Every structure is written in C-alpha cells, then in structure tokens.
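Before relying on records like the one below, remember that each one covers exactly one chain. Contacts with other chains, cofactors or solvent are not represented anywhere in the record.
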Amino acid sequence: MRLSRRVTLTTLALVSCLTLAACGSSASDTSTAPATGAAASSTSSEAAVSGEITVFAAASLQKAYEEIADAFTQAHPQASVTFDFQGSQDLVAALAEGSSADVLATANNSTMQDAIDKDLVGKPTEFATNVLTLIVPAGNPAGVTGLDSSLEGADLVICAPSVPCGEATMKLTEELGVTLHPVSEEQKVTDVRGKVESGEADAGIVYTTDAAAAGDAVEQIALPRNSVMNHYPVAVASGSTNAATAQAFVDFVLSDAGQAILTSYGFGAPASK
C-alpha cells in the first residue's frame, strides 16, 4: 500500500507539472504572438499614414483646410501637414515648374484640368462648391446697393480673369448682362477681401465663404439670382513622395468629418452629391 500510494503521488505531481508547463507555454505564446487579422491590418494602415505631406490649396480654403488638417493629424498622430495657399493658377504653375507637393486642391475645374493635362495630378474628386457675393466695408460708406449705378464712382475690386473667382465673376457679369469697371484685379480672392476689409476699396466680389470669414468687417449685398457656381476638386499630386498619407488626407476631406468642417465655413456640398 505504501508503495502504491507513493507512485500515485508521484504520478499526480508529474501531471501537475506538465499541466503548469503547458499553461505557462500557452500564456507566453499568447503574449508574444504577432497581431493578426483586423488588428494587424489596423496597425499596418496606421503606419502607412505617417510622415509629412505638403498641400497646395486655393486661398479661399485656408481657414477650413487648416482646421481639417488639425482634425486629420489628431486622427493620425504620426502624420503632419504643411500648406501653400495661393491662387489656384499659381499653384498649378508652381507644380509645373517643379515645386514639390503631395495634394492639390483648386477652386475651379479649369485649373485642375490644366494640372491634369500637364500630368501633375492623379484623378480628382470634387469636394465642395462655392458661390459669389458682393461685399462692402462695415457701414457701407460709399452707399453701394448692388451691381448697378451705385458702383459709379466707387472703388470696386475683383479677381483677375485667370483666377477662379475672376473666371466666375466674368460668367456672372455675362449672365446678368452687366459691365464692371474695377479699379484693380487681384490674383487671390483673399486680396480682394483684404482691400474691402481695410476700407481701401468700396466694394468687392468674393466667395460667400470669404464674406463669412471677414465677419463684422464687411457687409454682404445680395446678388441677383444666378447660376454661377465654383466647383472645388482635390487630387493627389503625381510627384508625391508620400502618396499613402496624401490619399488619406484626400479621403479625410471627403469624409463626414471633413465635409462638416467645410460646411461650417460656408462651403456647399459637392454638386455630385
């Protein structure tokens, strides 16, 4: 009996050791096993959205895009975004001359088409729309009432025809059958806004988003009903050195979060929606 009991105890001890060893091996294997499936995919995706990208964007997008970049980098902490805000035609010219960028966003289709024709970008997607309005300095010292005789003797500023807002202004005057006599034609819509804000000009034609950005510094004067609308496309630049993060930024602009930010600044939804 004593021998039998001793053998039994030894057997139980051996089984216990083997069980503990197996459990220990299992715990160790679990803690060191590589991520698989969805977890691995998420980690890989996040790793791809990293590094710096440069975004060339129309001047009218500045405030909205800066807020979008803040939200984008919060979602992707390993990424960073720098900007160059100019007139769309100047951005395309800079790309054509060899300037480095990862994303291009223009304020009309014709400048984006120019970039496409020069093989500077991939396939673009429309992400917003915008319309024109007439603004005057706070208090309207010149007494401007619209695109009418009240502009005679007033200093009116508009965008140059080569600029998206200038192209839209030309379409507007043709549709309404009016002739304007501006004292200057600017290369950026923000320059038009700036001259009206400062009182250097008595009136200016800008996007509604620029009028909103100017706040109490200007007053809006409604334009007659018209069909003129600017379409804003965005695309990854062909020469991008960080195409994965560039595409992620474009996707964020098109996302519900990006669209909500654009709407908060007065931009309209893409016409395709």
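Strands lie at 51-58, 79-86, 103-105, 125-130, 132-137, 156-159, 184-186, 203-207, 218-221, 230-236.
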